[in-house]
Design a protein that fits this description.
5 strands, alpha+beta, 5-stranded antiparallel β-sheet
Length: 92
């Protein structure tokens, strides 16, 4: 269903935001050996801004939908023993 053509514009936007917009997000590698059968999106009520967790196979992606710039630092305090990667994708 996710690969349905009606979602093409959403996939394109996530991969390449509009000019001067950016996606600041954090990626946590949950397991490099085991792929989860679970996928989902969850709101994180105690995180800064309006934050969500996208759980996809072996990775968790945390996104602050309001781009407050505080999510990564909040995650550092919560996920002490996890591999946390900060990523920024900016449109051109």
């Amino acid at each position: 269903m996710v690969l349905n053509s009606k979602f093409d514009s959403v996939r394109k936007y996530i991969r390449q935001p509009f000019k001067h917009e950016k996606w600041d997000y954090a990626q946590v590698i949950a397991s490099s050996e085991k792929i989860r059968c679970e996928m989902g999106a969850y709101r994180i009520p105690d995180a800064p801004g309006e934050s969500i967790l996208l759980r996809i196979f072996s990775d968790d992606f945390y996104v602050d939908l309001l781009n407050t710039g505080k999510l990564y630092y909040w995650l550092q305090s919560k996920l002490v023993n996890k591999i946390l990667i900060r990523r920024t994708e900016e449109g051109t």
